[in-house]
Amino acid sequence: MAGATVTVTDANFEEVVLKSDKPVLVDFWATWCGPCRQIAPSLEAIAAEHEEIVIAKLNTDENPTTTAKYGVMSIPTMNVYQGGEVVKTIVGAKPKAMLERELSDFLA
Cα separation of 47 and 53, whole Å? Predict the structure, then answer.
């Protein structure tokens, strides 16, 4: 699973994210969101470089249930889930180095 981002949906969110034995960063995004497109390459790179965290993407337009459940009001919002709980939230587009700093607790 490492090496690429994973697509999650309302249907598989619990299985892929909440039941994962690794921390999972979920990028809440939409196709029309410029900043979301801006951070996509950074997230792809982090996914390729770090096997210890799963990088998942959830399209907010196609998956309103999960988006609403976690109170995502602006995108990009990235939640890190560990043991089925949100343990960190990052809001807004940030450069890769800053994302890695924000995620340092979860990266080896």
Answer: 7
Catalytic residue among 24, 33, 54, 103: 33
| Beta-sheet strand order (sheet of 77-82) | 6-7, 54-59, 24-29, 77-82, 85-91
Is 59 marked active-site?
no
58 is catalytic: no
At 1, the pLDDT band (50, 70, 90 cuts) reads: very low
Catalytic residue among 16, 36, 53, 93: 36
Look at the pTM and tell me if it is higher than 0.85.
yes
Q: What is the mean pLDDT of the chain?
A: 95
